[in-house]
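User: Reviewer 2 asked us to show a designed sequence for the structure in our supplementary figure. I'm pasting the structure tokens here. Could you produce the per-position amino acids so we can include them in the response letter?
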């Protein structure tokens, strides 16, 4: 059997990303688009606001009528119309006339300013209703001009954008009930290990509960994927090989967990002998050195290691970027944030270390400290961590105070 291919982290990542092209887009109702990759350019079909409207509850006026208004010489205008939001005026204001208008209502023709209720005195009722104003008004006062927010024909969003609730609000205002977005890649997960138990099974000597499967399932779902099969398999090469082939038939991506290193019975490693399109890798990164990757049947297959911290790390820095590329996202990683290192962090040159780190705000910067031991079998530091601190390949340590970069999952709370 051939030796695993030795790769630097950057090479492994580039090989994976170079082999990914976006899956065909799908047309989805607006409400289903949160977090998805926009796959079309959005050009405004009309302006926002679509018409000139009032920014205040008050009176729509012709500012020229009030040019000379003052405490000494107040001006009284006749109220000829009442305009709640949603009603469009059909008349043109004549000199000396105004319209009582509510926020968001279209300005009547002839009006060019709004006097808020707070700056006027209401008089009369019915046909005799009037308002008196004691200060001058300028054209444009409290008026929202058509197109001031978005101009008709302008480029509003570019393909590749991750759609937020705020984006979807804007797209609703622009009358887009459906959007072209990235599909949800169908992913199968195969977790291997004779020692593994379900979460609800009691412990027994030699056995541990499977923590990778539930974690990966949720990471996949929160990365925009549909988990279309998540199963655990014993360390049986034949069964693992069959399950891998079956999963490749029905899914876009197959992830295997565990069994990919040098152990006597590592079933993924052995099953790959019958899959020449998939290579065993030894990636110069920690955690997560043993991996496998390939494109059998045009699908993506990732062999991840078994240790929980390795699974989490390889998922973040290799698999998740590929899954986002499949969907057509322009940004592939979690936020990559500049941080300062709070304590010396040892590494080894010619290996990229991803240190599970907690972050803390100090003097306006984020300071990163290891979240505990960096043993890849440990779960608690991973759970505590805010981020993966990157010790680049060329560095054999990061000294306290050094600037570095981190892939950030969540931020610590700020100073109250
Ligand atoms: P392997 O890569 O299969 O040799 O697994 C490496 C280590 O990770 C071993 O200690 C396994 O028991 C552990 N491990 C493998 N799979 C899982 C899993 N799904 N959940 C928790 N630990 C696991
Ligand atoms: Mg195993």
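Assistant: Here is a per-position design you can include in the supplement:
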């Amino acid at each position: 059997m051939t030796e695993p291919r030795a790769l630097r982290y950057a090479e492994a990542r580039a090989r994976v990303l170079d082999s990914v092209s976006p899956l065909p887009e799908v047309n989805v109702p607006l409400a289903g688009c949160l977090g998805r990759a926009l796959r079309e350019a959005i050009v405004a079909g009309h302006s926002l606001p679509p018409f000139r409207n009032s920014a205040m509850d008050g009176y729509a006026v012709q500012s020229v009528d009030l040019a000379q208004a003052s405490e000494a010489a107040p001006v009284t205008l006749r109220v000829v119309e009442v305009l709640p939001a949603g009603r469009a005026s059909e008349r043109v204001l004549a000199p000396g006339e105004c319209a009582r208008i509510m926020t968001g209502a279209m300005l009547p023709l002839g009006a060019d300013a709004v006097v808020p209720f707070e700056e006027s005195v209401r008089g009369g009722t019915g046909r005799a209703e009037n308002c008196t104003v004691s200060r001058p008004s300028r054209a444009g006062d409290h008026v929202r001009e058509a197109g001031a927010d978005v101009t008709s024909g302008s480029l509003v969003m570019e393909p590749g954008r991750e759609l937020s609730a705020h984006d979807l609000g804007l797209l609703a205002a622009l009358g887009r009930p459906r959007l072209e977005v990235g599909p949800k890649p169908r992913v199968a997960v195969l977790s291997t290990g004779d020692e593994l138990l379900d979460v609800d099974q009691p412990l027994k000597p030699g056995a541990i509960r499977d923590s990778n499967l539930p974690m990966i399932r949720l990471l996949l779902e929160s990365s925009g994927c549909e988990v279309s099969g998540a199963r655990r398999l014993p360390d049986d090469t034949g069964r693992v090989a069959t399950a891998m082939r079956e999963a490749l038939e029905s899914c876009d991506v197959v992830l295997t967990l565990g069994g990919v290193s040098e152990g006597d019975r590592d079933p993924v490693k052995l099953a790959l002998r019958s899959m020449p399109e998939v290579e065993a890798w030894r990636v110069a990164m920690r955690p997560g050195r043993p991996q496998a990757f390939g494109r059998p049947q045009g699908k993506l297959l990732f062999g991840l290691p078994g240790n929980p911290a390795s699974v989490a790390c390889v998922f973040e820095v290799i698999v998740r970027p590929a899954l986002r590329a499949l969907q057509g996202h322009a940004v592939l990683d979690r936020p990559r944030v500049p941080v300062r290192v709070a304590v010396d962090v040892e590494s080894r040159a010619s290996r990229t270390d991803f240190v599970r780190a907690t972050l803390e705000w100090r003097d306006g910067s984020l300071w990163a400290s290891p979240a505990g031991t960096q043993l890849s079998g440990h779960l608690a530091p991973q759970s505590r961590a805010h981020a993966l601190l990157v010790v680049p390949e060329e560095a054999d340590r990061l000294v306290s105070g050094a600037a570095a970069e981190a892939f950030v999952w969540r931020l610590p709370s700020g100073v109250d």
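For the response letter, you might also mention the following. The pocket of adenosine monophosphate (ligand 1) is lined by residues 191, 193, 195-196, 208, 210-213, 257-259, 261, 263, 305-308, 377 (CB under 6 Å). Residues 26-47+163-181 form one domain.
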